[in-house]
């Protein structure tokens, strides 16, 4: 056989091998896409209602990934699965009111902060116990209305020893023309800091929304409040979010479906000590927690009142110069509009 024929044969074999390899890769990619698409349809349209609630709840907890649920489901279907509207209605109808007279702040001017690891079956997190609750304040991005900032940056700008992310935000661009491109600059609900109303996007001073408030004596209020309610209770710092987890020492029935996700929460013990909690999620070592898991953790650490804050990719804890948890966002800390911080 001539040299040229050998070369042609080798080229044909190489081309044939490359063709088989290319088609193998394409087949694998097709299988991956087909499997993912099939799983999505099975989860969102199949008969497994509990699985559907868990997945949709987790997606809606994340401001960045809500669009996935909305690709396949209407807002009415999402509300039905997550029970969000019903939960807010139940909170508004609740006859049990918080009794802050039961809180006795016993450790003013105490600079001690305790740090604990919080471990569950499927999650890992951190709890900070702040003995002097008058040190706990609400901070916010200096670019409010335009862009959020990292929790650690807001903490540092307020000379804070510790901080966690705070309230939620609108997932729209600053122009309002594009969804799912939010930069954390547009907070949802009420935002108060050091006695000033920083933001109230409803524009109605009497509209009640699920809110965390801290009064001038360092006592934590959780529940459905308006700006007028907060001012009447001498609240200086406030953030809107929910659901309420513990009220007057009683675990609250949580009707809202949130799935398994990273979580952030604030609580207070009877002696006034403030509890700051974060739980990592969407990771191999920590899948995340349900609202019930967070409620259980708060009760275990002695909370008599507690409320859930913004979770998902926003969940961050800053302490003593470092971010000590593992935010699940691919780029690290997410930009947020507000934080709960501890004065140094």
UniProtKB/TrEMBL annotation:
The lineage of its organism: Bacteria, Bacillati, Bacillota, Clostridia, Eubacteriales. This is Exopolysaccharide biosynthesis protein. It holds the Pfam family NAGPA. The chain crosses the membrane at residues 21-45. It comes from Clostridium pasteurianum BC1. InterPro entries: NAGPA. Keywords: Membrane, Transmembrane, Transmembrane helix. PANTHER family: N-ACETYLGLUCOSAMINE-1-PHOSPHODIESTER ALPHA-N-ACETYLGLUCOSAMINIDASE. Residues 158-342 form the Phosphodiester glycosidase domain.
